[in-house]
Amino acid sequence: MASPTIPVDLRDLPPPQPLEIILDAIDKPVPESGYWAFLLPHFPQPLLVHIEARELHYRVEVADDYRGVQMLIGQHLPE
pTM of the full predicted structure? Predict the structure, then answer.
């Protein structure tokens, strides 16, 4: 079993940098864990169409420190 992906913290970057970083990541092969993880300042609505176009799944949850959200993107998301 692959180890969990450590989230990339994009919360302090100005737009559109988080979107560009995530789009660049999801254009590459899926990591061994089966997903990418990102910390974002808010729900990334503009990103959803790009994720769905790549036939990937996503889940958004409140970040552990309550400063934004954690987004998981991939083919196989952890439980």
Answer: 0.93
Backbone angles phi, psi at 36, to 5 degrees: -105, 155
Asked if 59 and 32 count as a contact pair (C-beta separation under 8 A), the reply is: no
Residue with tokens 């998981």: 72
Quote the CA–CA distance of 23 and 59 in Å, as a whole number: 16
Neighbours of 57 (CB within 10 A): 14
User: Each residue of 14-42: pLDDT tens digit?
Assistant: 999 999 999 999 999 999 999 999 999 99
Gap between the Cα atoms of 1 and 5, Å rounded: 12
At residue 29, what is the residue type?
P
